[in-house]
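Notebook entry, structure prediction.
Reason for the run: the old model in the group folder had no record of what sequence produced it. Starting over properly, with the input documented here first.
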Amino acid sequence: MSESKSERPVLSYRKQLQKLNREIDEDLFQLADDLRAQYDMFGDCCEFAKLYEEKTGNTSNGHIDVKFITRMVMDELKELEEAKDQAEQVDALLDAVYYILDHLAKTRLDIRPIWSLIHLANMTKFEKGHKDPNSLKWIKPKDFTPPDDDIREEIKSQLEDPESVDNPLLKRDLDALDAQNRQ
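New structure, fully documented this time:
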């Protein structure tokens, strides 16, 4: 069965539209990747941690040093208390965040999927929770499920399949192990 002359422009238009949609999708994915790279504070801290280890020769053991990170964050919070203006307050808060993200980078995990789990859990608090009038803190609903089990599962998954983890320190470690194994 042949197509009529009136159907040809419609088919041609559909093909052009499909091609345009594919190009738009590719552009949107590239834009999303560019934005993610531009605003990826964890990625920035991974880059810093990697360079720090390369320059100093001090490599972390992949574990969280609770005493060290607590001391560093407390120092920044003390600076927050002493801040003279908003610029110093913002600097102190972001320095605390930087310490925390840098420390998490040294675990060789990719915290971005874990962050998503925590964010989702926090957002669900608004469905049935309420604000405490005294503390102004948002109170979790009674049936709130913390993301701890999901976080454990994500960490386990990353440890079982380190090749899938987006952390340059881990990738460098894996490359070094691979090079050793080839010798």
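Summary: The first helix runs from residue 7 to 38.
The old model has been moved to the deprecated folder.
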